[in-house]
C-alpha cells in the first residue's frame, strides 16, 4: 500500500488528510471517509487500507483541522483521565456542523482532478457515528459528484435543528446504505424505525439494516465493541455499493 499525507485547502485553512492506495494500477475510483468523533487514528486507517485493497484511492481528512492537526481521544472507560478525554472530544465535536463538513467534503472533491491517483467520476463516501449525519449532508450538498454513500451507526440523523439530515433527504440522488447496532444508547431502535420510514419516502435508493447482537462502534478494532461478523458484513455491503457505482 502507498500511504501519504496531504493538505487540502479549504475556506478555513489547510485540512490535513491521510491517503492510501494500492501499490499498482490507477488512477483509481475515489472513496472519502469522514472520521468519527475520536479522531483520525490507526483504527480508521486500518479500515481505509482494507477498502483500498479492493482497488480504491481512499482519503481520510482530519475534520478537526480548524482546531488541531492531530487529535486522538484517549481512554474513556474506567480511566482516571476518562472524563477529561471525553470533555475535549465533545468540545471538538461542537466545532463541526453539517454545513461545515459538507463544505470540507466539497474541498476534497474540488482537489481530486489535480491528484494523479484519482480517477475522474463520482465519489463514494463512508461515515461512522457522528459522520453518519455528515455523509448524508454531503450527499445532499453535492448530488452531482457523490455516487453512493454508507453510514454505520450514524448519530444525529434526526434532530430538531433546521440542518437536521432527515430534512435533506429530498436533495439526495446517490444510493445510500445505513447500518445500525441493535444495542446503541446513541441511536435507539425507535429512532432507527423513524429514520427508516423517512428513507422509504425519500427519492433516492437506500437500504437499512440493524445488526443483531452488536453495540455502537462494532466495526472498530479499537473502541471496545468489535463484532467480527458484523465488521466483515460492513465491508461486504460497503464494497458492493462501491462496485455498483464507482468501478
UniProtKB/TrEMBL annotation:
Q: Where is the Dienelactone hydrolase domain?
A: 15-245
Give the source species: Reyranella aquatilis
- Is the keyword Membrane in the record? no
Q: Which GO terms describe its molecular function?
A: hydrolase activity
The name under which this protein is listed is: Dienelactone hydrolase family protein
Q: Keyword set for this entry? A: Hydrolase
Amino acid at each position: 500500500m502507498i500511504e501519504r499525507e496531504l493538505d487540502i485547502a479549504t475556506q478555513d485553512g489547510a485540512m490535513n488528510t491521510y491517503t492510501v492506495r494500492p501499490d499498482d494500477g490507477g488512477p483509481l475510483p475515489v472513496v472519502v471517509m469522514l472520521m468519527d468523533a475520536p479522531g483520525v487514528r490507526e483504527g480508521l486507517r486500518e479500515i481505509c487500507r482494507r477498502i483500498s485493497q479492493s482497488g480504491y484511492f481512499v482519503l481520510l481528512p482530519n475534520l478537526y483541522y480548524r482546531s488541531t492537526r492531530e487529535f486522538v481521544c484517549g481512554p474513556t472507560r474506567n480511566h482516571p483521565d476518562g472524563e477529561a478525554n471525553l470533555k475535549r472530544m465533545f468540545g471538538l465535536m461542537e466545532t463541526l456542523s453539517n454545513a461545515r463538513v459538507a463544505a470540507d467534503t466539497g474541498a476534497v472533491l474540488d482537489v481530486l482532478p489535480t491528484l494523479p491517483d484519482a480517477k475522474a467520476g463520482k465519489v463514494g463516501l463512508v461515515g461512522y457515528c457522528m459522520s453518519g449525519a455528515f455523509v448524508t449532508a454531503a450527499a445532499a450538498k453535492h448530488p452531482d459528484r457523490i455516487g453512493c454513500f454508507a453510514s454505520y451507526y450514524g448519530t444525529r440523523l434526526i434532530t430538531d435543528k433546521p440542518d437536521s439530515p432527515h430534512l435533506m433527504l429530498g436533495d439526495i440522488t446517490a444510493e445510500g446504505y445505513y447500518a445500525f447496532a441493535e444495542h446503541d444508547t446513541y441511536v435507539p431502535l425507535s429512532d432507527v424505525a423513524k429514520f427508516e420510514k423517512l428513507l422509504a419516502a425519500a427519492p433516492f435508493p437506500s437500504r437499512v439494516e440493524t445488526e443483531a447482537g452488536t453495540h455502537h462502534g462494532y466495526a472498530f478494532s479499537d473502541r471496545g465493541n468489535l463484532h467480527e461478523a458484523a465488521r466483515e458484513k460492513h465491508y461486504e455491503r460497503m464494497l458492493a455499493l462501491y462496485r455498483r457505482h464507482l468501478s
